[in-house]
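Hi F.,

I've been meaning to write this up properly since the lab meeting, where we talked about keeping a consistent format for the predictions we share between groups. The idea is simple: the sequence comes first, exactly as it goes in, then the structure tokens exactly as they come out, then a line or two of notes. No screenshots and no reformatting. I'm using this chain as the first example so we have something concrete to point to.
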Amino acid sequence: MKITNVEVLVLKSPGLYARPTDAEEPPGPTLMGLVRVSTDAGITGYSDMETSAPVAKAAVEAPRWSEAGMEFFEGLASLLVGENPLEVERLWYKMYRGSIYYGRRGAAIQALSAIDIALWDIMGKFYGQPVHMLLGGKWRDRVRAYASTLFRPTPEAMREAARRYLDQGFTAVKFGWGVFGEDPWRDVQLVEAARAALGDRNDLLVDTGWFIERTPKQAIQVIRSIEAFKPFFVEEILHPEDYDGYRQVAEAVDTLIACGEQEATEWGFRELIERAHVDVLQPDLTRCGGFTAARKIVHMAETANVLVIPHSWSSDLLTAASLHLNAFQRRAVFVEFNTSQGPLSRAMVKEPLKLEDGYLRVPTSPGLGVDVDERTIEQYRIA
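Output, unedited:
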């Protein structure tokens, strides 16, 4: 079996992503990249990607640069066409080395990540096995899901939104970004309102948003101001590369500190474990290096005895991939479920994932275990 084509399809939904102005559900992503890897055996692999899709498309479609074995500037597709898609480990490093002068992080590693996921999807379909079996096994049939949404602007809207998620069957809710960080006093009121609506038996998670730049001591003050409301974790309280600052914060508070959705490769996550001392790693499969890197990250986390809760905000396609990673982990806590109702979130697969008693079932069909809806691609593709 050989790879015949690697494509990035750029999809655009109507409207723009925006903060909620009340308790209503925020819209989903405006732009999304979808990777499609084709083979001469008629098996196709897919993955979405949460990045700048046009930039990633350029990284994939760039031409070959050298015929002398000096692969530093290569387009990712040129490195893969003609290769055996089952050699995921070797192909991961071939892409990494071939893009090393413009890659290693950012859009290049994110495009590599999505391609890697698509290769694992192909491998699962070829062997007739779900991805979690290829990773090494399944520890669970279902994973507890948390509703992932934005902070609402008022305590009343927070309470109403939280009650809606409980009515939908969630037992955990993460509020993030939005207005949080603009007014410290309002921040406390918003978190307090969410806790009051959720009660003591459901989990509240807080994403403070690293785009609000804080010193470590300011971050500690923010966390202490909301600790009374018992957040399960506080996410991305500092800039993603402030490893020493994260260590200072993690050692000063009792609340679990989470980060990693912007991090990539096992080398980057080693920094979060050994230098930042965070409690929860959040690899996003479409950013960290795909399944090939994530499997190593899980092993590192288990050795260091820290939690892994994958970031998976974009669509049901990524959520399905994250369910496989959760199934593979000896100790899994949550899967993130983007509650946005936009078409690129809810219509990417033919049968959207459904919540059952607060849990999502791990797909059991070959590959990622979900089928991409080609009608969605046709309707929203712009490039």
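Notes:
The domain at 3-129 is CATH 3.30.390.10 (Enolase-like; domain 1).
The longest strand covers residues 3-12.

If this format works for you, I'll send the rest the same way.

G.
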